[in-house]
């Protein structure tokens, strides 16, 4: 799971660079001047000569036109053999010309002016990235082989609208940096990786459906309670809860229901400021192999076990006292 941490650090660096670029972009006019795709763009951007479906002819299957100020890609609709298309950093508001590209496998349209991700269903499309647009919902995302969908840094407020009926192949969903406040209604239960960092999530609902989920990122949200996790999440190994509002170790204890949890990130929560933070967490979650950025040592596990045993003894004593109190109350005549 170390690659998850490396990925996160890389993303933080990337965000800083993008912020600087955005400040430059904001200085530009709101309404871009018309700039259609030209023959010149095609000459520059077409590559990867490959056999076509019948094996008797060849065609270019890759096209790239990044940062060209494009507002119109109508010319692309004639290139029906394209499989890989990158149109990032343009001024596109409409992807309708791509509907004729029925061989498309991979599409990247980051940093455009799209307000909708809606496209005609493409039968072989497996990867789409719509990062940093102005998309508000999941309307019209229905590609049957789609395995990886990224909508980072958009304006999405609800996870309603994604359907397992249409997206039964979806395994990776990236929704970092939107305006989502609950996980309720996320109808794609076959996911393996779900990234929801930098939203405004304050409640976890509907997670019991995610029986195949292995990685869940919830960093930088508004979580104070950890209700909502379920024993049915039997594949979850990595959970990132960094920079939320979790105050008590009892809340952390609710993660005991996750049978395969190996790596937990809890730093920058109020509970992480408490004395013996690591030992307290491990006393509730003895199966953890990694907490924050450090591997769990054997000595820590032994110390945590002592804390857990002491807590159990205390609970037993409390239970005895409660029983004695109840029996005394029963014997007192009215």
UniProtKB/TrEMBL annotation:
Coiled coil: none annotated. The keyword S-adenosyl-L-methionine does not apply. Residues 1-39, 294-334 are annotated as: Disordered. The keyword Coiled coil applies. Keywords: Cell projection, Cilium, Coiled coil, Cytoplasm, Cytoskeleton, Flagellum, Leucine-rich repeat, Repeat. Residues 1-32 have a biased composition (Acidic residues). InterPro entries: Leu-rich_rpt, LRR_dom_sf, SDS22/Internalin_LRR. It is found in: Cytoplasm, Cytoskeleton, Flagellum axoneme. It holds the Pfam family LRR_9. This is Leucine-rich repeat-containing protein 23. It comes from Geospiza fortis. The lineage of its organism: Eukaryota, Metazoa, Chordata, Craniata, Vertebrata. The gene is LRRC23.
């Amino acid at each position: 799971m170390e690659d998850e941490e490396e990925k996160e650090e890389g993303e933080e660096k990337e965000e800083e660079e993008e912020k600087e670029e955005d400040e430059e972009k904001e200085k530009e006019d709101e309404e871009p001047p018309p700039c259609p795709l030209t023959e010149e763009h095609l000459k520059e951007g077409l590559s990867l000569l490959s056999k076509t479906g019948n094996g008797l002819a060849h065609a270019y299957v890759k096209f790239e036109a990044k940062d060209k100020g494009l507002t119109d890609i109508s010319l692309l609709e004639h290139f029906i053999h394209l499989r890989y298309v990158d149109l990032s950093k343009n001024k596109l508001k409409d992807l309708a010309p791509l509907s004729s590209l029925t061989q498309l496998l991979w599409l990247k349209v980051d940093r455009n002016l799209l307000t909708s991700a809606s496209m005609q269903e493409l039968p072989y499309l497996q990867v789409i990235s719509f990062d940093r647009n102005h998309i508000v919902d999941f309307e019209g995302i229905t590609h049957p082989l789609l395995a990886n969908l990224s909508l980072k840094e958009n304006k999405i407020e609800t996870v309603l609208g994604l359907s397992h009926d249409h997206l039964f192949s979806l395994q990776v969903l990236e929704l970092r940096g939107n305006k989502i406040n609950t996980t309720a209604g996320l109808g794609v239960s076959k996911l393996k990786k779900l990234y929801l960092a930098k939203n405004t999530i304050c409640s976890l609902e509907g997670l019991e459906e995610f029986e195949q989920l292995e990685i869940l990122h919830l960093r930088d949200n508004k979580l104070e309670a950890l209700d909502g996790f379920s024993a049915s999440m039997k594949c979850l190994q990595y959970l990132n809860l960094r920079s939320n509002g979790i105050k008590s170790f009892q809340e952390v204890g609710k993660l005991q229901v996750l049978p395969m949890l190996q790596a937990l990130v809890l730093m920058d929560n109020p509970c992480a400021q408490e004395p013996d933070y690591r030992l307290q967490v491990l006393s509730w979650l003895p199966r953890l192999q990694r907490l924050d950025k450090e591997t769990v040592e054997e000595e820590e596990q032994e110390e945590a076990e002592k804390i857990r045993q002491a807590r159990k003894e205390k609970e037993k004593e409390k239970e005895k006292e409660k029983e004695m109190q109840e029996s005394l109350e029963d014997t007192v005549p009215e």
